[in-house]
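Incident log, structure service

09:12 report received: a user says their structure output differs between two submissions of the same chain.
09:20 pulled the input from the user's history:
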Amino acid sequence: MAYNTTIFNQMVLFISRLDFRHLVNKHNGDFRIRTLRCWDQFIHLLLAQLIKRSSLRDTIFSAHTLQNKLYHLGSRIVKRSTLSDANNKRPYQIYQDLFYKVLEQTQKIAPKHKLKINRKIFFLDATTIDLCLSLFPWARFRKTKAAVRLHTLLQADGTLPVFMNITDGKVHESQIALSIPIPSGSYLAVDRGYHDFSQYNVYNNSNIRFVTRMKTNARYRVLETKISDPSAPVRSDQIIEFTGYATYKKCPRLFRKIEYYSKEQDKILVFLSNDFENSAETIADIYKARWDIELFFKTIKQNLKIKRFFGTSANAVFTQVWIAMITYLMISFFKFLHKSKYSVQTIFRIIQVNIFERKDLKELLTNKFTKPPGSVNEMQICLFKF
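09:34 re-ran on a clean worker, output below:
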């Protein structure tokens, strides 16, 4: 029988220790450190994500019971106070840079999106994570509430987050949109929270096509109307020009207004786009595909530890979020590599209960399990005799 290391070990081998060392040296993460290296911190927090530990104390207790297995990963057992200090003081930028290193490898094997157009599709959105104001005063959001916001640019191919920015809850989506590096020549689907005509003008100048929901109070005039079938989902397809003084000054361009009937919601959806090449149905399908980013936020909140934090400082919160996103990329990488039909959420559950089993990871993710000897009835009879 072939010898296999643990599932956790097979996953950790995906991370290049040389790249990790370069990043630690870049940010002086292990400068004058004697007891807890950044690699030990990473292993413990990665383990906490994969087996869903509820607290730092729970993580350390679990690590103590698995001391022999962690030793073979080049990690040592640490105290809770030492790990807590590391989360507060070690630069979170180490794991932010590591996230983009892992992303490069995952993108190479990511499957293509089912929508076939000649541009790469991206989705832009943000999600809010509520916090306790008394414990996280630096993240004040409301009068009696704190929160952080994850601004995310999601690649449609493989549903991968290609850019993330973590801010406090007060920062609006439209403020961050200016700093998000959207590749030239791509296609972007956004919701109405990013409505900004200055930004739309930037998209046009960068050869970026976009589709969004149109504001109900917009002032415009119709320049051209395409004839459509009243029984078809596309009820109207028009070329318009906005007439507001400030609007025209920010973006003096023509747009496309599409009215689309959604059977699922049983209402008319009005889309705004600068795409004059694709059909109205295709543009509507691209916006509907934007639901992938909502599913992404749901997946990470349900399966990763990003709603309850092990530290209260901003550095500890950012460190935990970036390691959580590295965990998501690692799961996605092995899903793509082994062409697993399981969802990311299902793979999380499988790995959680098999994390230190000596099994082949590919076999585990492709469901190639061997059947037990004998029939079920024979096994029941044997148990009954005992």
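09:41 both user submissions now match this output. Likely a transient worker issue. Closing.
09:42 reviewer note: Residues 7-98+304-366 form one domain. The chain has 16 helices and ten strands.
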